[in-house]
From TrEMBL:
<dbReference type="InterPro" id="IPR050135">
    <property type="entry name" value="dGTPase-like"/>
</dbReference>
<dbReference type="InterPro" id="IPR003607">
    <property type="entry name" value="HD/PDEase_dom"/>
</dbReference>
<protein>
    <submittedName>
        <fullName>Deoxyguanosinetriphosphate triphosphohydrolase</fullName>
    </submittedName>
</protein>
<feature type="compositionally biased region" description="Polar residues">
    <location>
        <begin position="1"/>
        <end position="11"/>
    </location>
</feature>
<dbReference type="InterPro" id="IPR023293">
    <property type="entry name" value="dGTP_triP_hydro_central_sf"/>
</dbReference>
<feature type="domain" description="HD">
    <location>
        <begin position="64"/>
        <end position="250"/>
    </location>
</feature>
<dbReference type="Pfam" id="PF13286">
    <property type="entry name" value="HD_assoc"/>
</dbReference>
<dbReference type="InterPro" id="IPR006261">
    <property type="entry name" value="dGTPase"/>
</dbReference>
<dbReference type="InterPro" id="IPR006674">
    <property type="entry name" value="HD_domain"/>
</dbReference>
<dbReference type="InterPro" id="IPR026875">
    <property type="entry name" value="PHydrolase_assoc_dom"/>
</dbReference>
<dbReference type="InterPro" id="IPR027432">
    <property type="entry name" value="dGTP_triphosphohydrolase_C"/>
</dbReference>
<feature type="region of interest" description="Disordered">
    <location>
        <begin position="1"/>
        <end position="25"/>
    </location>
</feature>
<keyword id="KW-0378">Hydrolase</keyword>
<dbReference type="Pfam" id="PF01966">
    <property type="entry name" value="HD"/>
</dbReference>
<feature type="compositionally biased region" description="Basic and acidic residues">
    <location>
        <begin position="12"/>
        <end position="25"/>
    </location>
</feature>
Amino acid sequence: MNWNDLMSSQRLGEDFKPKPHPEGNLRSEFEADYDRIIFSRPFRNLQDKTQVFPLPDQDFVHTRLTHSLEVSSVGRSLGKNAGARILHKYPTLENLTPSDFGAVVGAAALAHDVGNPPFGHSGETAISDFFSHHHMGQQLKQEMTKEEWEDLTHFEGNAQGFRLLTSNQRQGLKLTKATLAAFTKYPCYAAFEGRDKSRKSQKKYGFFQSESNIFKEMAESVGLISLTEHVWARHPLAFLVEAADDICYSIIDLEDGFGLGLVSYVEARDFLAAILKEKYMPDKLEKIPSDKEKIGVLRAVAIQVLIEESTEVFLSHEEEMLAGTFDKAITDLIPSASVLAEISKFSIRHLYQSRQVLEKEAAGFEVIDGLLEAFVLATYNKYYRKESFTGRFKSVFGLLPQDIIYKLDHEAKTPYESMLLITDYISGMTDRSAIKLFRILKGISIN
C-alpha cells in the first residue's frame, strides 16, 4: 500500500479524482466528509442512543453522540500527529498536509458508531438472536444464501454503518474513499470461515453481502492489500480510529462510572494516575476543590498521554501496516497497555455488569425482539406469502416509514433485501423511539 492511494479524495460514485484541496476552497475534501457526517440523520440519532449506561437525567453520562464526538476529537489529534511525521518521512507526497490525515481519522471516528442499533451492543445480539431462534428465521434461512444468512444471524453495527454511509439516499453522503476505508476496522465478510484469530481486523466483519461490490470497488481504489477473496488488510488509519475509540471508552466509561457512584474517587484517581506516571502531581491535584473536577483534570491529561503513546506505536509499525503484516490493536502495545487492561477488567465487573446496565440490556432484548417480530412477519407476508397478509399485518406494515415502504415496493427483490430494510429501520431507531413504538404495538400506549 502507498499513502498517495490510501489518501484518495475520490468520492464513492464519482469517476474523477479531485485534489484534497480544491483551488479557491479552504475546506479540504476530507473536512467536507466530517461536515457531511455531522449533518446526517444517522449521526443525529446517536444523541438518544445508549453508550453504556441507560440515559438518565444526569448530564455526565455519555450517549453515543457525545462519545462519537470525543472519539473524533482524539482521532483528529492522532491523525495530525502521525500525518506530520509521515509527510516528513515521505517528502515526495504531494497535496497533503498533517491536517488531511487528522481530518480523515476524525471523520471516520465521528461515524464509527452510526450503525449501532438502540440499547448498545446488546441491540446487535438481539437482532442476531431473533433471526437465529425465531420460527420465522428458519423460514427465511431456506430462501437465502449462506452468506446472506450469516449477515442476519450475526448482525454487526460496523457493517450496518458502512451500509448507511454508502447508501444512495437522495444522492447519499458520497464520502471520500480514504474516509470510508479508514472507517472500516474489519475489512472482511460475515461468512468468512478462514479467519486468522491473531489478526484484530478479522475479529468481526465490516460489510454485508448487499454492499460487497461497493466495498471491493473502494478497497481496490485505495490499494488495500487483498488477503483472499473479499478479505483485505486494514487501511493503516483504521488503526488510529480504533485506538481513539479504545482510549475514549476506557477512560470515559471509568469517569461515567465515578459520576454514577459505581466507582470510588480513589479507584478512578489511581487508575488515571497510573497512566500519567511522572506527570501525576498529587500536590497540584489536591488544590482542586471538588473530586469531580479532579477526575476531569486527570482524565484530560491521561487522554493526552495515551494519544502520545499511541502515535509512537503507530509510527513504529507504519511500514508493516503498509505491507499488510501488522494487525494488532495499537493500545495493546503502548506503555500504558497493562493499565488499560486492568481498567477493562474492573469495568466489566463494576460497570458493564451493574444492575442498571443489565436492566437496560434485558429491556432492549424485549423491545427489539417485539419490533422485529411485528415488522418481519408483516413484511414477509405482504411480499412473499400474500395469502396470509391479514388485517393485523396490514396495520403493522402501515406503521413503517414511507421511505422504507417505497424501497420494499421498488428495490427489494429478495427476502434478504427486504429483511435488511427492516433492520435498517429498527437499528436506526433511538432508544426512546424504539420503546415508544414497542408500547404502541403491544397496546400499552395508544397515540
